[in-house]
Design goal:
3 domains, globular, 10 strands, binds acetoacetyl-coenzyme A, Butyryl-CoA Dehydrogenase, subunit A, domain 2, Butyryl-Coa Dehydrogenase, subunit A, domain 1
């Protein structure tokens, strides 16, 4: 790590230990998201890390961002994911938005005053995202040109607490080319929230259904051009996926840390359980898998930073790191034994939080589909 990265890590560790960690057990139990914590993270510059300074961001690299997300995830996967998704929304606006759109929406998002949400999935369009049916029909209302949104979205991270929603909706024919992206603000008439999901993990981060009923969106809220929506979503996910990998590395690191500390202090058969080779091999494998994952995530981030994005590596980073997080957190519960299965230690929470990392931003099966397609493409060039 360079000096900036070490400073980032130390600052975040201090903040999380003081402000996040003391509430985590209670907030996980009660599904409480604290906006004041998010606002404070914003004041410290942690909610707009990769955005250029002209729109209120800090202008850091994706490598710095990955290190920061990893650190936050050691204390709370939920806050890390809120920042990751809100940053993905900022990246979309920065890359595809007009100057007016950027000036209007980015400062509140980057400063952590507001949260952004990414809205692609529907009940009938999960892995097959291009089959979405939420419609956006061209219309004119009171002399203003725009679109009428009808339909619903599910699994929306930060649904209900976000103010700016990037919504993919169908403006054209079936398939990916008929999808467009819109900026929809909370409070727009015709836009409401459906059920809040009761989840196994990520309990501090609300996940909600969004409902659109004759919701009028002015044409100025269209992002880029009609029909660009699917590519905008896919390009955003390319970046989002390795940041989910970074969160997974943090989640796994915390589980390993809890395991080693416990194994060194817990005595059975007149010796610390750490001294049993069976457990040593488990912990050595946990450490190995975490380092492999970290290197993949940082390499994927570096490729983005150097202007040569590698979608295949981004999918690999997400796949490897999230499978590692699931395995490492499960092993951590095993090493702690009975107490690992209780709320006396945080490992059961990290195990629950790890599971959905294998599902969001493209299931790990979809990551393999993308990796295989890109492999085929590479080989068909020869
Ligand atoms: N960047 C830019 N364009 C891309 C792209 C990318 N990474 N990937 C595909 N495209 C383009 C293609 O080039 C193609 O364009 P043309 O028609 O001009 O050739 C177009 O998009 C369609 O591509 P495909 O034919 O590959 O599309 P597909 O229907 O076969 O789907 C898929 C591909 C990879 C399976 C995709 O549907 C997918 O990623 N599914 C998973 C969905 C997903 O990740 N959902 C996550 C929800 S969001 C979330 O979880 C966030 C959260 O809140 C935590």
């Amino acid at each position: 790590m360079n000096e900036i990265q070490l400073e980032l890590k130390n600052q975040l560790q201090k903040f999380c230990l003081q402000k996040i960690e003391p509430h985590m057990e209670h907030d996980d139990e009660t599904e409480t998201f604290r906006m004041d914590i998010f606002n404070e993270l914003g004041e410290l510059g942690f909610t707009g890390m990769t955005l250029p300074e002209e729109f209120g961001g800090v202008g850091l690299s994706y490598q710095d961002f990955s290190i920061a997300l990893c650190e936050i995830a050691k204390y709370s996967v939920s806050y890390a994911v809120t920042i990751s998704v809100s940053s993905m929304v900022q990246a979309i606006l920065n890359e595809f938005g007009s100057v007016v759109q950027k000036k209007q929406y980015l400062p509140a998002l980057s400063s952590g005053i507001e949260i952004g949400a990414f809205c692609l999935s529907e009940s009938g369009a999960g892995s097959d995202a291009a089959s979405l049916i939420t419609s956006a029909k061209k219309t004119t209302q009171d002399g203003t040109e725009g679109y009428l949104l009808n339909g619903s979205k599910i699994w929306i991270t930060s649904g209900g607490i976000a103010k700016t929603y990037i919504v993919m909706a169908r403006t054209g024919a079936a398939g990916s080319s008929g999808v467009s992206a819109f900026i929809v603000r909370d409070g727009t008439p015709g836009f409401s929230f459906g059920k809040k999901e009761k989840k196994m993990g990520w309990r501090v981060s609300p996940t909600r259904e969004l409902l659109f009923h004759n919701c009028f969106i002015p044409a100025e809220n269209l992002l880029a051009n009609e029909g660009d929506g699917f590519k905008i979503a896919m390009a955003a996910l390319d970046k989002g996926r390795f940041t989910i990998g970074a969160i997974a590395v943090g989640c796994a690191e915390r589980a390993l840390d809890e395991s080693v500390r416990y194994a060194l202090s817990r005595q059975q058969f007149k010796q610390p359980i750490f001294d049993f080779q069976g457990l040593q091999f488990m912990m050595a494998d946990m450490a190995l898998e975490i380092e492999c994952s970290r290197l993949l995530v940082l390499q994927a981030a570096k490729d983005y930073d150097s202007g040569t994005p590698n979608a295949k590596l981004a999918c690999m980073a997400k796949l490897k790191a999230t499978d590692t997080a699931m395995r490492v957190t499960t092993d951590a519960v095993q090493i702690l034994g009975g107490v690992g299965y209780t709320k006396e230690y945080p490992v059961e929470r990290f195990m629950r939080d790890a599971k959905v990392l294998q599902i969001v931003e493209g299931t790990n099966q979809i990551q393999r589909v993308v990796i295989a397609r890109l492999l085929k493409k590479e080989y068909s060039k020869h």
